[in-house]
Amino acid sequence: xxxxxxxxxxxxxxxxxxxxxxxxxxxxxxxxxxxxxxxxxxxxxxxxxxxxxxxxxxxxxxxxxxxxxxxxxxxxxxxxxxxxxxxxxxxxxxxxxxxxxxxxxxxxxxxxxxxxxxxxxxxxxxxxxxxxxxxxxxxxxxxxxxxxxxxxxxxxxxxxxxxxxxxxxxxxxxxxxxxxxxxxxxxxxxxxxxxxxxxxxxxxxxxxxxxxxxxxxxxxxxxxxxxxxxxxxxxxxxxxxxxxxxxxxxxxxxxxxxxxxxxxxxxxxxxxxxxxxxxxxxxxxxxxxxxxxxxxxxxxxxxxxxxxxxxxxxxxxxxxxxxxxxx
Length: 327
Description:
mainly beta, Immunoglobulin-like, four-stranded antiparallel beta sheet, 43% strand, flat, disordered N terminus
């Protein structure tokens, strides 16, 4: 996302080089706004008296916050002629996020910043240098980049001194966030905000005195968003516990499926046994012991239609004796 820019300002400098007065001009906006994780462009363009005939080196530099004392965080060079080798600027990337979006051959030094971060906020200065020492210029006022971001809690931790009785919440955001505390029994809790001089302006530190039986909530908010953290932190299931639960569930499911299959097969076998039992009956028959005496016995006779179980003489008399196998 490219954000709207303020109207550019015109900077002019006069340089003497043994010839009539030479005038340089540089255009750069006073301020550019952007949002965290988005993209912004810092425009910068220039003009110089020999721009139509100049074929030498053009060196591009960008500095932040302190134009005269800090080293440039971005610098590249190229030759101002068609087909010339040695163009570093078209491929150069600083810190993986800073690119030259303009073409120095057309006097455009604009810088593109990807994945904006809160610490990118600051004042940026563009500078151009030609072959001659006197032919160089740097923006004087610079361009202020303001990065906005929703409130975000960086940490919520118990301080070791004194006696682990202090809880500190560190939040960041732009505009700077407001930090509010709540306890499980008392509701709103009065806090003490203490800023470290080494912290950037978008960082807020807030602390309270705590008691062991309470649950505390830190809330950070600004006009762009809010976030809440709880102490002690809520304990969710550990990854190992989750995997064990899934494994036990699969084992139980496999057991249920196996039981259903076993019952299904066992039921079919039981039906066959019952059907066979219905085809059997009790019938009187005679048998003799070793002494030749007759005695009455009962035997299970299978009444199923088995042609080998019994035979009938061909003359078909009603009083014929039926011979059968006795189990």
